Amino acid sequence: MHSELFYQSALTSVPGVGDVLIRQLISYCGSASDVFRSSLSKLLKTPGVGEVTARAILNPDVLLEAEKTQRQCEKLGVRQFFYTEKNYPARLKSFYDSPAMLYFQGGADLNAVRTIGIVGTRQATDYGRRITEEIIQALQPYHPLIISGLAYGIDIAAHRASLANSLPTIGVMASGVDIVYPYVHKKTAQEMLLLGGLLTENRPGIKPDARLFPARNRIIAGLSDVIVVVEAAAKGGALITAEYANNYHREVFAVPGHLNQTFSQGCNKLIRDNKAQIYTKPEDLIESLNWDQPLGEPTLVDKTARALEFTEEESQILALFRQQPEWHVDEISWRTQIHVGKLASLLLNLEFKGVVRTLPGKKIQLN
């Protein structure tokens, strides 16, 4: 008997089946294992599934590939997180296009209370590297999880500055965790495993490919409470990450630069188009995210969580209030993917427990 994780892994390896269709199949069949137990006729009733896809699901080679993946993960010490499981990063769960499966190697908490993504050009200047180091050093008392893409330039500067300041840092990869790209960053990647880690939606053995880089940028954006673009050209991966962050209702900051510098054009354009706030000092980030006290001092949410028992959904709601003290009901529903009707009941329970209070205009505030 194979585990449910085995079938979840198998489902992600079916040719032509992407993250959205995986959710559709789970919704119609009940579980990943039930998908593979389904008949051809039943699979064909699932919206978006044609005969080619249905036969691909029932192809025995898919299960053989899953066995290979399981062996590789066990050998590498890689953990797999499927989107239906509790250990899947909560920040990604509300997005329809988030990865169905994640592969993680390392010791970081993917549900860290505070997270920040730092991205930028591969052609970083001394100015860009210095600003990156200053940002991370200033945020050290708040102990955030630093997220970037392990690429040349600003990305690797962010990872190395995090290590220098004993902060956990995660590299989101456009390959399997066993294939570090670029290879010259392998030593840094290995150093990141203790406090941080390597994260990807790609199975071990998958080599980096041009189409995979934009896809990994959405993970960086989704995992981060705020994205800081340090340097960027008029086009490039950093701007793609910022675009995802805006679509995901994440905070975006951009470091302004010299008007005649190529790698300031992207940042200046984000600020001009109101797609990013201007970054001038670390306090800009701290004030925007309400990181007004170091992590070592428990917030009101943390103190209350210790004193009371909460359901998983209540805890999911409270996690939002670690980012800011006030939310609109519709925004809470969208971010948690909890139906407004059920959410009203959950918020009422939290109000009875003295954790939140209702304000005019369908707004909820932390007590």
Automatic annotation (TrEMBL):
Matching Pfam families: DNA_processg_A, HHH_5, WHD_DprA
Classification via SUPFAM superfamilies: MCP/YpsA-like, RuvA domain 2-like
A biological process term (GO) from this entry: DNA-mediated transformation
Gene3D superfamilies according to UniProt: 3.40.50.450, Winged helix-like DNA-binding domain superfamily/Winged helix DNA-binding domain
Parts of the chain that traverse the membrane: none
The organism's place on the tree of life at top rank: Bacteria
InterPro entries: DprA (IPR003488), DprA_WH (IPR041614), DrpA_SLOG (IPR057666), Hlx-hairpin-Hlx_DNA-bd_motif (IPR003583), RuvA_2-like (IPR010994), WH-like_DNA-bd_sf (IPR036388)
Sequence ranges assigned to domain Helix-hairpin-helix DNA-binding motif class in this UniProt record: 9-28, 41-60
Gene Ontology MF terms in the entry: DNA binding
Alphabetical list of PANTHER family matching this protein: PROTEIN SMF (PTHR43022)
Protein family according to the UniProt entry: Belongs to the DprA/Smf family.
Name this protein carries in UniProt: DNA-protecting protein DprA
Gene label: dprA
